[in-house]
Records
---
Amino acid sequence: MVSPPLINLLGHAAGAIVFAIFLCLLFSGRGWSGGHGRYLSGLAASLSLLWNLGSLIVLARPELPAGVIGIVIAVSFSVLSLLPAVLLHISLEDRQPALVLAGYLLSAAAIAMHFWEIRGNGPALHQAAILIVTVGFLALAVIAAARLALRGSGRARMVASMCLALFAMSFLHFGTGHASQAWSSELIVHHAGIPLALLVLLQDYRFVLLDAFIRFLANALLAAVLAWIAIGAAVRFAASGNISRRPLQEALLFIAACFFLVFFAWLRNRLQAWLTSTVFRQGALATLAARIKESPGFADELEYLDWAAATAATALRTPDSAVIADRDLSLHAPVLASTLRDHHTIAEWPWAEALVPIRLGQGASRLMLFGHRHGGQRYLGEDLDALAKAAAEIAEKVGSLRREEMNRLVAQAELVALQSQINPHFLFNSLNALYGAIPRSAEVARRMALNLAQTFRYLLQTGRSFVPLCEEMEIVRAYLEIEQCRIGSRLAVEIFVDDAALEIPIPVLCVQPLVENAVKHGVAQTAGPGYVRIRIECRAEALRVVVENSATAASRSSGAGLGLDNVRRRLEICYGAASGLRLSLDGETAVAELSIPVVKSVEMTAR
Amino acid sequence: MRTLIVDDEPIARQVLREELAAFSDIEITGEAENGHEALAQIERLQPELVLLDIQMPGLSGFDVIRQLPAGALPVIVIVTAYDQHAIGAFEAGAVDYLLKPVTHERLERTLARARALRGQIPEIAGSLERLSDAAGKARKVAGRSGEEFHLIDLDDVLAFQADREIVWIITAKKRYMATHPLREIDERLRGTIFQRVHRNALVNVNHVRKMTPLTSQRWLLTLSGGLEFIASKRLARNVRQMLQW
């Protein structure tokens, strides 16, 4: 029942289907993960497809006119002769242009001979052409492999070259052209070309969906084997002669067919599960997102990110991982480093093989880098999917860590910690009593009591992390009045606030610490007079707060305080890189400059 | 205006007395140093204005409001040291809310408000009912402007607009800060004249003056006073249905 023509037909049909799918994946944009070499791979796959189609025509329609058959044979063998040159080009990747050129010249010579066959003297020319291709590419592949070995290039490329050599050897049997007669022993060699060519094509794992491709092949193979068994059984059953159209038999046959399909589905699932666990070794990654979700408690964002990266690295079985700031890549999903080969991030982190963006909102994002995996395992589409899921969990967790940190920072800035120790009713009632005890003539003292009450009320408030600028400025004014009361006329104060800025929301207590800092360093430490100048302008996209103070030798040497770190960190959490706090020294003036992005709400324009 | 001062601290009463002395129409008819005394004085003296401390031994300021004798309906102004009770004070029926130490300017505004309300005691009196109509729908909303809290009639509100964590209550004259997140306000005002037109905005449909389609999916809503909002088609349709356009 198994005849060589049947095997040939099935083999070429399978080859045609495999390469057609390869081409679809390649140009669908879904499976492709890189730019380089796409067209070469496409060309190689197209050539393989053409070769298989040509062979199919010759095998299936031998009754066609001899001229047509001759042309088809010439075309399909030309295609086959060109294929090793393209595969050599792919496996060398512009590394040894001389070898690549030699390959194309060999192919050109063989193609010329194949077309010459049509004009007569077929077999001899055909033999010669096949021999040229076989010996020539065998030599080229060995030279390429030797050179690669000498330079210590990657193992994958060596394997590719050896495959190419085997591929070239498989040409030997084509001596007599397309034969529909029995080749028996040569059949295996004949169809070895397909998987070998595939191996060369896939050597760089250019497909994110390589795993999907392999899964598809496995499914197709399983279906073919089962179909073969079923057809065999059916034929034997028919041959046994006891076929009749009795309802019972029909019913039994129907049930058997159903069971067979169910069995196929079950077997397919088992096969896929086996592929996942054994071939792709994905086990630890599948549960990565869940494990990252159930992280132990972390107080610090960076600590958590390091832990998450280490956990993912363990699951991926790579020793190398890092968390860096994503400055200009703005990735949306995990990618392979090979797809970004010219980017400077890759240049800085040469060991990185996979990049996973952690998108944190406010435009800021971080990158997790992962290195070479244990045992040369590749990053497959499924792995990247699992990493994307984990990245989403990480981003969410970082978001909640940031909210917690924000609350903590606001609490720090607002003295809420003190609030649990001071009874606010006691404080404000006491200030009120003090206010009442001061004679009405002591205007300055009464103002001082009012300002103190106002300032403490602002510092002890809870539950607000944003306030309109005007509220913050009232407290800045009250605070400066208190300081002027303490320091006296030595402190000169100038305040300018753009009217348009008054209602813009700002993080609570982000201007007052700057002013406090300016007073502390600019004036309080010196004997002479000093000044604090506050200027707040509303620009197109940002609120600009500039606090200047007179600088002295003493203030220049002292660093910025904890209060400013708190402000800086809160700005970073609220606005990402769009905001910032800059301290500088301009001659005799120390400048603290703060910029807060303003989102002009499109919804509302009061005329 | 006959005024009663209620505070357990003598010096706090003295501060108020001294500040009130600057206003010629204020006649301080009495002082009370606890809740029971306050209730007795209110019944006996029938004051038009009560300046009421919250934290007092025995009956608190809230208890005093709850137990006001029938028929005695003075204008209540809460005077407190710490502003954690602001919303509760309004809900209990106070018309204003002062923080100690009270400044002259702030007191002046409060007295102006009290004078304006003096003639309409029955309307401003009562407790929770005052904030809601018979069907339990809200009629007023508390808004904050700096350190001052105000009670704003919902009919005067053009829109609620969220900007980061701040929710603005926009009226024709002024903007106030709401005391609750927009989501909670939306829930509380569901089924009233307020309609969500955007993730960040609730508008009073009675103040919508014009609706112009911008694109197939977006409408421009113009409110009285020239305030403009962009609404999605779906939300704009809700507004149209409410207005039966």
---
Amino acid sequence: MATRTASRDRGTREQTEQMQFPFAPAGGENHGAILPEPAMPRKTGQSVKKHIKNGTATTKKKAARTLRKKAAASREKIAAPTTRKKRRGRGYETAESMSKAQREISVSEFFAKNRHLLGFDNKRKALLTTVKEAVDNSLDACEEAGILPDIHVKITQSDADRFCVTIRDNGPGIVKKQIPLIFGKLLYGSKFHRLKMSRGQQGIGISAAGMYGLLTTGKSIRVTSRVGKRSDAHYYEVQINTKTNAPQVVKDKTVQVDWDHGTEVAIELVASYQKGRSSVDEYLELTAIANPHARFEYVDPAGNVSEHPRATDTAPEPTSAIKPHPYGIELGVLIKMLKETRGQTMAQFLSGEFSRVSPGVARKICEAAGITTRARPTRIGTHEAETLYKAMQETRIRPPMTNCLSPIGPDQILAGLLNGVKAEFFTASTRSPAVYRGNPFQIEVGLAYGGELGPDPSKEPEEANNNESLVRRGKVVKTRRAPSQAKLMRFANRVPLLHQLSGCCIYKSVLEIEWRRYGLLQPGGNLPQGPLAILVHMASVWVPFTSEGKEAVADYDEIRKEIRLAVQDCARKLQAYLNRRKKQKYQADRRSTFERYIGELVGACAGIKRINQRELTANLMAVAKHVTARADEELSLDGKARDDNGKARRRSGRPKQSEPDRPRPGTSSAKSASGIAAAAALGPHAGAEYGENTVVVDRDQAAAGPLFNGDAAP
Amino acid sequence: MAKKTARKKTTKAGTTSKTTAATRKTPRRSTRKKQPANEKIVALVDSVVADAAKKRDPSIVIPMRTLSNAHYNKARRIIEMGDRTATRNFFDLNKAKTFMQTVLIAGGCKKLIEEGKTVSIRGLYYLSKHTIPGTNEKTFNDQNESDPVIEDLEVALDALREELHVFADSRGSIAGNLTVTSRGDEIDLRRMGAGGMGIPSIVEPDVFTFKKCNAKFVLHVEKGTVWARFNEDKFWQKHNCILTHGSGQPPRGVRRLLHRMHDELGLPIYCLLDNDPWGYYIYSVIKQGSINLAFESKRMAVPDARFIGVRSKDYEEYGLSDDVKIAIDDKDIKRAKQILNYPWFKGKKDWEKEIAAMLKHGFKMEVESLLTKSISFVTETYVPQRLRHRGKWLD
């Protein structure tokens, strides 16, 4: 049915392509169940009824109708509720008849049916997931090849709900023969069988996106890849055969492209585009924040080009794969490993296959399990394996190596936030690695406060606290800006998480914190209120997602604790800043009060006696300056560091590369439209007095008033 | 007996009255006026300029006008201001504006002095009120801000309001057997009709003099309504006296006039006030001076004044009806206890008894309550009776 609609849309020219659609012959085996959009085709519906009628009448002649039965088998579920009544106990299957319908399910068939597991629940999400999978792959490839990523995303709209997504990177490219497999086969990839920190994990994403495109539009996934200057670019059109989970190459040719290396993927799919929360725009913004070393260019369906410039030239440290830690495996995995190991003895097996197991530790484990160190691993039985497993859990083993992790790093987080969030105060914190279930992980947190994130409760208490709308005669006359709730940005291995906020461990951990302690409002146990953005990044060799769609981090006590500590660390620095600013505001208020009255006072004095007005003003201003010296000190924070500031900076022991005058190549080339560039050009000055890794950008220097602009320094 | 003393005093005062205004008072005033007010204002500005030049916080020293800085002088029987002062600094967030206002008011006064004109305190408020350039803020938001500043300036400069050419609204009236000159016009207070003469705010000898006085005493009543009753019955004619009222708490002009009539004309002052804490305090202010204007007590207080009514026991004595009762509330009780604690009430047994009686009654009475007997009861019976019985007066 779907193909029929599609062919009507597309006209006759594409009839040939329709023929290539492997799992949608005219008779429609099982794709009717896959497609939720069109209603049950009338013709097939009739055939079902017919079949049932036949079934009731001639139970024993079923063998003759095997073919038809087979076709209907997959629809049994849908048909069942309506048929149960009619059968009246006479239409039950037998073991033999059932065995006819029993067959292997291909992984692609499974995911084609259960595509919500992969993030293709609705049209809007489908578009995002497609972009996301492609961009994640590109970033992974670039990182592994040590290339600073340069990614172009283009979305064009061809019909009301039809979009073509094109993603091009400057990665290492893909070898010709691997292209069909990578893009045309589910669960095919390099990342599943290793314990290494990367964005992708299973090898489902991009091929699932291709499959979705194929299912909804019938168009193949188009891949162009070039591995280097010397070789040509290959162009492939690949389809996935859901029945066999195997790729089908539709077109294969050599093409000329104007880029040296990289991969371009184009997928056409039925989707819908909408800005706002959980949109492609938001995804790219967040990705740019967590990947300040990458540059993004984005063309949205309306044709608007936006750019997220590169904020740093430092590529993340390449990570290495690690072996599993004894604490992190399960019994079944252990048994499997015992069978497959190349180690000749238990000692070799334990120290060779696991991380942090030295020969000494291996001996201890064996002793505890009552197995000799020279036993052959392949001979270990299930029962013995269980004792071995227990022994492994009980023996003290050092936590896993952490060089497999590549955290973003506080400096890079700051660079990313400075680039992507228009705020005044930035701080970041990276915890040292920790372990959950034998998997090393690391939590990083960044906070941004003030600026354009929303009304500031400390600056305009009335504006920020009153969320009233004045209603007169049923009409809203006046609305006040709502108190903005903090924005939580969740990342796992540098990938933004955009869905299932409330089910996420990160969200729960942030709620757990008593934000009031840090000078922020937190009504009703929600996220804190105020112009605040919270970035939480979890880096791990294996991020425990709650689903294949990678939408939320599962709840582990160890993870929660680390997140809490990291956020609290940042919140303390924020609190220092807020306190300082409160004082500063008080002093600035004082000074502006004095300034206001100095003019009046001088005028009144002059009315009484002939005096040198200018001199008196200057003298009084000087006294005012002295009295409110503290406010002045704050004002001089804008880069023109004073002696006392310098001291403060040295005391805090900030790493050298994070000095404020550190090169910021991204911002210099950035468009002024981004706003942040202009602010950065002013020079983000060190907020060292608030703690490590803190940057304060003076966005409204005018806010302090024209006070002492023409200041009379005597 | 009352008449006797009154006459005695009158004769004494009568001899002095003609000379006093010109001779005795003037030298005392001139000692106060060592330095003219406008020079003091200039000195104030000089100190501000000097402080600023030395990069110091400019300040004005203002004697405190609070209960804690008001002492009762037992010998002179008046309230006097102590020597505690408050320093008003410019570079103090809470005082910066008041400081500025003080200088503004001083500037306004200087202008008035130089031009030889006087304005009311409300007028001075308007003179000094303007928007601070570049803001929406006004130098004064309302008169409640400027009035205390004027009083501050008076004490800070040790200059009287009239020296600063400022006066308050005139409240209170006078009628009786007295002829006065006010700004050169001779006024016979016997021919004032129903309204009497409004007592001006400034009744200093240079603008207000007593020409001729045949009265034997002064009867001060609380408010205009009662005063009108006495005036209509020609009480002052029958008893050869002077009738005044001060519209409740008498303003400075009325108090100063009472003081001068007592001091210069030797007339005894009798007060007919309500029987409630506010009435008691009006009497206290007339007699000893007020806390706020303690610095003016010696020019305004009449320690010899007497309280002739209304007394608590009048209710029983004259058999007044229940309708005159006004129940006292917590505020009245609080105020009564406060008054009992003032040093100048302490130790006066009669007053302690009087206030205790009022509290015991649980109601207060206004002078008008005597009208329930008959319309002219208060003028024809009550006051004459009281004037005959010295023993019933309260000191």
---
Amino acid sequence: MAERALDIAQAMPGARAERRGEWRRFAANPRALAGAVVLVALVASALLAPALAPYDPTEQRPGRVAEPPSAAHPMGTDNFGRDVLSRALWGGRVSQAIGLLSMAVSVVVGVVVGGLAGFYGRAVDGALMRLTETVVTFPTFFLLITLVAVFGARLPLLILAIGLTSWPITARVVRAEFLTLREREFVQAARALGAGGLRTMARHILPNVVPVIVVAATLRVAYVILVEAGLSYLGVGVPPPAASWGSMVAEGREYLFRAWWISFFPGLFIFLTVMTYNLVGDGLRDAFDPQRSAAAGAPRRMRA
Amino acid sequence: MRRYLIRRVAQLVPVLLGIALVTFLIVRLAPGDPAAMLVDTTLLSREELQRFRASLGLDAPWPVQFVSILKQLATGEIHSLRTGQPVLAMLAERLPITAVLLGGAIALSLLLGVPMGVLSARRPYSRLDNWLSIAALGGISLPGFWFGLVLMWVFAGILRVLPASGTGPATSLTYTVFDMAPYFVMPTIVLASGLLPPIMRYTRSSMLEALAQDYVRTARSKGLSESLVLYRHALRNALLPVVTVVGLLVPVLIGSTAVIESVFAMPGIGRLVVEAALNRDYPTIMTLNLLTAVAVLVSTLVVDLLYAVLDPRIELD
């Protein structure tokens, strides 16, 4: 599990270059495009799981336990005779939903904290950034394990906990944007015309920070899906009977040497989902900020 | 320098108190009686239960409990609710495993990640650079527990060249470091898979920046060999941000030991956190959370100091 924090933070300042042509640049980047296509397919397969899944994901067939992948069961069956593909498709709904909701919590908190710190500066900035540093230095994964283990696994708690421990990166990036934007003429003009702090932030600064937030949000989904998967693997994540990809990998661990497919395929879904969110996030960043483009096949001189 | 140190250490105090308070509140706000985890409370009379809870210090008001826990922490007299063992002794027993894993993963990531980053920066946007950057993205996206299981399946299940899990051969009671080493190979690789990609990416971007500097042009124009320019002139200056990345990723790395030690059944700190949390062993949970926070804060401080040592232009005061 890794942290994309540094990437986002480093890449962001100056992201509001020109706005036109972003989509063209995104579409011209084969890596980002491939990521987007696979990601759309993964999201669609989760949404359409009820229609796509060949079997009932919870139906146990005692006679067909731990069957290797075959035409009838492309990803085999698990230790209860359940179809692994159907379970993985349904599990995607759980993993993706938790990922998106946790990301939403994380981004909202990050934008509010970063925006206030960057806009008001001074004491507000000092206090909020100290808080941010504290959350960053803390091994939040241990805290999450503790939290979920003692309060019992509940979905709202899980989503809130993951969201509330993963906002600092967004906060830092948004703060940097607010810091530079608040000095710009159009913001000064709005203030001179009597616009209050909240109005200035919401109407004049925030719209210009949207690209940065979109990139941060995309990369955050990747991160929180990994966190949720890790927690669920340890048994302190999604409560049964719901099963996310992480819990499915854990279920198959015992049977690894006899029936590798039970763990392998759900894990592969996690990997592909996280990878494609990362590819799309990187692609968006490059599209919004062509100066820093690391796009494949785009020959470019070294940055001076 | 000394004033800086004193100020930094003083700043740690409120942070640590805050962390202690947060963990304390989490475990105390939790539903359920910790005493019920130890005994079947239905078998006790009300007086017996009260006496039992009092013996655990659970009947005192929260602030009193908090202060008493802090006192126990400060004196090291804190005991596991579960086993009655002193928590510090449990920690000391498990620390070497986690320390070896972390040290190994950091060393491996630096040894491979830095040269890969340099290689990438030598010809940016070349085919090699592209493949390395896709590989880095893949490494970042790997769920550690799954990667661990896949390695286990391949190397322990199919090829049978590495032991699947544990920290030493189960067949003998006395074994040497050499017997233990194979058990650490896969966990170290999995742990490094999260650290190596960021190191590589940071080395690359930092090298690109360094290579565009005047002193590199000067070195080249003097006719120095390319490797001399790359390693002596550019890399030396480019390594600084990489040090910071390692420092910043330490908390994440420590967090992942929970998952990795569980996958490979290694009795380290991360595994202890999971066990303590599942058992609601509050004193152990608090001690572990606090001490990891201390470890992280100290490592951040060391990185900042290292920064000043590596780059004389940086003044700490």
